[in-house]
Specification:
Elements: E1 2-5, E2 13-16, E3 28-30, E4 36-39, E5 49-50, E6 56-63, E7 74-83, E8 86-94, H1 105-108, E9 111-113
Antiparallel strand pairs: 1-4, 2-3, 2-6, 5-6, 6-7, 7-8, 8-9
């Protein structure tokens, strides 16, 4: 189950990547306002894929318009893994545009936890600034 607690009313659609056209029940939610929404994403119907670390993962898109993606729309990657020690859950940012490349690791701002995790605006990490080497120019002495 994925629960969305938003800062503003959401009147649009929330869906797993790849389910926009067919709109399967557990993978697509048409919202009519409200700040709290839930989706029960099933293993078989919503295009979950196992990644190289053994996590089942999918991208969820929060789109403000019922038909078009606009700047300001959101997307998150959600990951779940069951191990002998328990469950591990991850969530991170993604690009809502289906034709976009994966975000760079530092832009994903992934958060990990046991069973339940919360992603807030405070979790978004800025890119670490690279230290620029200062070029020192010396005058040639004769």
């Amino acid at each position: 189950e994925v629960e969305f607690l938003l800062d503003e009313d959401h009147d649009g659609v929330i869906y797993t990547r790849g389910s926009f056209a067919k709109k399967p029940k557990n993978c697509f939610l048409d919202t009519d306002g409200g700040e709290r929404h839930k989706m029960n994403i099933t293993y078989d119907d919503c295009g979950l894929k196992e990644d190289e670390e053994g996590f089942l993962s999918q991208t969820i898109v929060l789109q403000q318009d019922d038909w078009l993606i606009f700047p300001g729309d959101l997307a998150f990657t959600v990951h779940c893994k069951i191990t002998d020690q328990g469950r591990i859950a991850r969530i991170g940012l993604a690009d809502p545009d289906p034709s976009a490349k994966d975000l760079a690791k530092h832009k994903k701002s992934t958060v990990e936890g046991d069973t339940t995790i919360t992603f807030t605006p405070d979790d978004i990490r800025p890119r670490k600034k690279s230290k620029k080497k200062k070029a020192v120019k010396k005058n040639d002495e004769l």
